[in-house]
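Batch manifest line 340
LIGAND: zinc ion
JOB: complex structure
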Amino acid sequence: MTLQSLTIRRPDDWHVHLRDDEMLTTVAPCTARQFGRAIIMPNLVPPITTVEAAASYRDRIVAAAGPGFTPLMTCYLTDSIDPDELERGHAEGVWVAAKLYPAGATTNSASGVTDIRNIYPALERMQRIGMVFCVHGEVTDPDVDMFDREAVFIDRILTPLVRDFPALRIVLEHITTRQAAEFVASAPANLAATVTPQHLMLNRNALFQGGLRPHAYCLPVVKREEHRLAVRRAAVGGSPKFFLGTDSAPHARGAKESACGCAGIFNAPYALEAYAQVFDEEEALDRFESFASLNGPAFYGLPVNEGSVTLERAVSPVPDQIGDLVPFGAGSSFGWRFSG
Ligand code: NCD
Ligand code: ZN
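JOB STATUS: finished
ARTIFACT:
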């Protein structure tokens, strides 16, 4: 019998960019409509590096998202981050996690970390106080091919890091490769990963389908089919180490469709529809709730959400544009519909 409707605990998004100001008012309701909580990425300009900046950003998100949504804030790690500031923000309940952007790796990462050794004191402290470490796992060396940057990061940075901080809870964000899926699966329980809809649905051909496709461009960039399949197997396989993180990263249409287009895919409006389609295709709908609603809270040490959401098997057309933004799947449709 084919399942026609799917009800799961209200899910969370463990990696999202909500931006600020006008963009925030457009995108926050999209995330709040489907998710109970979200890990909010701190790569604003200027980045969120102080407890005060995070607390006031949190207030702006709550105002834009409306009732029933809880933003979980993160600290943007810099070379000069003060471990005491991290501990204070964590103790005051402002920061749930801190995020590593290797300097130059992605959008608004100019103030990021230039050498992992520079944040070893911060990581010592985070390990001690139980603060989660979220990682953009790509090296930035110009000598390393774009498509190899995640795998090389795992070899050069993450492998020694996991050894040096055996009790630090680490999330390797938005994994894109077989190497990442395998490394996370075989590591101890304190290393987990988030997976985006685009890395489950697209391979790198999507970047060039009939012409250059800026709306398929994000970082880490989508990889070969072999990698997409490995990431898919990991996500649907039932391991508690893999959970939902959209990496929804809106940029105005003109900033994407440009001679130097921004990296980021705005997938928040139809995120659950996209993930449900993948789990359905993999005949793994029975594991969708763990991935979307249970594994993340268990890893972060938070309770699961009260309440539930329902998806129905129905054609869900995606509009060409939402305001000034082009959503993931624009002009096509998903096979599931979010019904609240
Ligand atoms: C993100 C953004 O635009 O902030 N872009 C992206 O392609 N994912 C940054 C990031 O998460 O790398
Ligand atoms: Zn991101």
